[in-house]
Description:
Blueprint: H1 2-19, H2 26-37, H3 47-72, H4 76-80, H5 87-120, H6 134-145, H7 154-178, H8 188-218, H9 229-240, H10 249-274
Amino acid sequence: AVGLAVGHPMDTVKVRLQTQSTYKGIFDCVVRTYKHEGCHGFFKGMAFPVLTVAICNSVVFGSYSNALDFLTQSQRRERDQGNKASLWAVFTAGCFSGLVQVVLKVLVLAPVDLVKVRLQNQTASRGGARYRGPMHCVAVIVREDGARGLFRGAWAVALRDVPCYGLYFLPYEFTCRMLTETGKQPSSYAVLMAGGIAGVVTWAFATPMDVVKARLQMSGAGGRVYRGTLHCITASLREEGIRVFFKGLLLNSLRAFPVNAVTFLSYEMIIRYMTVSPTGCSQD
């Protein structure tokens, strides 16, 4: 939750750049947001994600751990003692965790991300704002679009998360092994570097579909109207060129390194604390 709070201002700027064409770039978006909305403008839409981020992370790491145990037919302690999991198994287990995450998001948490994006894009003053808060935003969406409206962009989320969670754990595992001597536990430095690199690599691949997801979520709410995922991709490409799919990449990378470095370090420390014997690099 702390990492989310620290990274949310950059996420707000990223979402606005992806869904609005009124900004010249990152600096222009930051200046105009602060000028018209103050510091509060950078934290719009943060309430719901803060309440659900712990659930999301526990599902991702838990499903990854169990999938890797199944694929390697071994436990974490055995792999720490030298029987390393193959990188293919790591990638496959990561994809499985992405699939589980997608099911959770589509069935339960899709409205949370939708509300976040809608509130982040709200630039009007409080008196003229379309949404008065998260719950009012949900009520307006249901009233205008029905319950299905809460799940806009769900297919884009699936196309983004399933393969990208495979990539999420793969560079982490590879980097962690490269920075750790054989037979030794990885240092905090190794875990932080591996986690940060994993976050940057993942978002480099995820950003194109992240742009599509954000645009679909704003469709019909002040943004351009799209008929679906494929229409959004083709229309965006035709109107703005290939560069449109990389809007927010720099911000995603700057935010991803510290947030994911801390996430993986926290994960490793908790796992080591909960096991009887010291554990090594994240193998589950």
